[in-house]
UniProtKB/TrEMBL annotation:
Signal sequence, start to end: 1-19
GO BP terms in the entry: lipid metabolic process
Organism per entry: Lachnellula hyalina
Name of protein: PI-PLC X domain-containing protein
Top-level division of the source organism's lineage: Eukaryota
PANTHER family reported in the protein's UniProt record: PLC-LIKE PHOSPHODIESTERASE (PTHR13593:SF146), PTHR13593
InterPro entries in the record: PI-PLC_domain (IPR051057), PLC-like_Pdiesterase_TIM-brl (IPR017946)
Alphabetical list of Pfam families matching this protein: PI-PLC_X
A GO molecular function held by the record: phosphoric diester hydrolase activity
SUPFAM superfamilies, sorted: PLC-like phosphodiesterases (SSF51695)
Amino acid sequence: MILKIFFWLFLIGPCKVSAAACNGNDALCSRKYSNITQIGAHDSAFVGDLPTDNQNLDVTGQLNAGIRFLTAQTHSFLNQIFLCHTSCWEEDSGVLADYLTAIRTWMDSNPNEVVTLLLTNGDAIAVSMFADAYDDAGISKYTYTPPNQLALGDWPTLQDLISANTRLITFMDYNSNTGTVPYILE
Ligand SMILES: *[C@@H]1O[C@H](CO)[C@@H](O)[C@H](O)[C@H]1NC(C)=O
């Protein structure tokens, strides 16, 4: 009888561990978002072998490889938000909404993962246009909006973010406006 109980504990133990993991590690669940280290990919949308490219894997491949912090450079082109390297004549990696759709699709099938996006907005594109791209990509549902401006120690834990399914943290370098779009943080 006792042996049997031990046997079942053995079976249940490892399953519980893998189900609870946050960003691949149980120890991160209780950590505040502001107290974790992430691996990032600079200019994550510029994929290929040219000198203007930064990455060999596309954004889905980067996420599969463990990248959880993505930066993307945006430019205004043809009245839309494009991901271009310095200029769209130099390198054009398509519209922001397509890039966001790839991230959203990955997040759909990886519900215990928190992803951070840093968007650059050197062309001062209206932040409401970014919100339109988020809506088009179906990724707005995952965005995290802080209740107020957070001090370093006030951030939620990874488990908080995962439980609320607000698993996408977005920062913008310049020209954000949290009054208009509260989840694009400055
Ligand atoms: C960050 O996490 C570590 C490990 O859990 C903990 O020892 C440390 O106190 C935390 N720091 C802050 C500022 O929360």
